[in-house]
Amino acid sequence: MSAVDTVRARISLAIDLDLMAAGEKLPPDAQIAAALDVSEITVRRALETMAEDGTVERRRGRSGGTFVTGVRPSVPDGAVEAYRADAALVHRLIDLRTLLECALTHHAAVHASTGELAQLAQHVADAGAAENWTEYHWADERFHVGVAEASGLTWALEQYREVLSQLYRYFIPYPIDVLHAANEDHARIVAALEARDPVAAVDMAREHVQHLHSTMFVGRLEGGTPPSGARGHDA
């Protein structure tokens, strides 16, 4: 699957799952590129093909941008179907991340310095101030990598980053209020780390990551959509 296809798939899935509403304006191309870890030209080409399909509308001018039309493609998108077919892989990545995250969080509760704890709190604040899913994703990644780095287990960082990177490839746009709800977990994890309570910190980290089984697109496609107001997805 090309990089253009992955952008199409991720935005299309968000639209299919009603996570992006008709008339909603997408963030600037550069922000989308950073959040989805692709080039800006890749995003531009993907959105242009989606505009050709009628899924989004590209408007020029000062009040322009890219807007969701609410029109669903009449022909199934092969890229979207490929993402759907990866459901089992996504579930395995969530479980693998859970194992690593719990171990790293335990050690972070024991070894994190005052400066590292302050930086984690800043990442939580940045996520709370995010105005859209692209800004939130930036802060979310820094928070989780920051916890891993605070563990002192430098030998485990490469494996954790790789698993996190693989899972982030399935990150799709979410309403910012849903992501802000997920950020409340981050705040609770930081509080447990500051209290030097590894048991509480690990319990929260495990629940936070395992919740992705229902809140990521794989869970929503399987009928696991959480009730309104429930914590959201941040991976």
Strand order, biggest sheet?
1-2
Within CATH, the superfamily of the largest domain carries the name GntR ligand-binding domain-like
Strand tally = 2
Question: What radius of gyration results from the CA coordinates?
Answer: 18 Å
CATH level-1 class of the largest domain? Mainly Alpha
What is the total number of structural domains? 2
Q: Give unreliable regions as ranges.
A: 225-230
Structural class by SSE content: mainly alpha
**Average pLDDT rating:** 92
Span between N and C termini? Answer: 21 Å
Give the helix proportion (percent range). Answer: 55-70%
CATH topology name of the largest domain, in short, is Four Helix Bundle (Hemerythrin (Met), subunit A)
> In the CATH hierarchy, what is the architecture of the largest domain at level 2?
Up-down Bundle
- Coarse morphology: elongated
Number of helices: 12
Question: In percent, how much strand structure appears in the residues?
Answer: under 5%
Structure, briefly:
With 235 residues, the protein is mainly alpha-helical.
Describe the structure.
- By secondary structure, this protein is mainly alpha-helical.
- It folds into two domains: 3-81, Orthogonal Bundle (Arc Repressor Mutant, subunit A), CATH 1.10.10.10; 86-221, Four Helix Bundle (Hemerythrin (Met), subunit A) (Up-down Bundle), CATH 1.20.120.
- The chain contains twelve helices and two strands.
- A two-stranded antiparallel ribbon has the order 1-2.
- It is elongated and about 55 Å long.
- Residues 225-230 have low confidence and may be disordered.
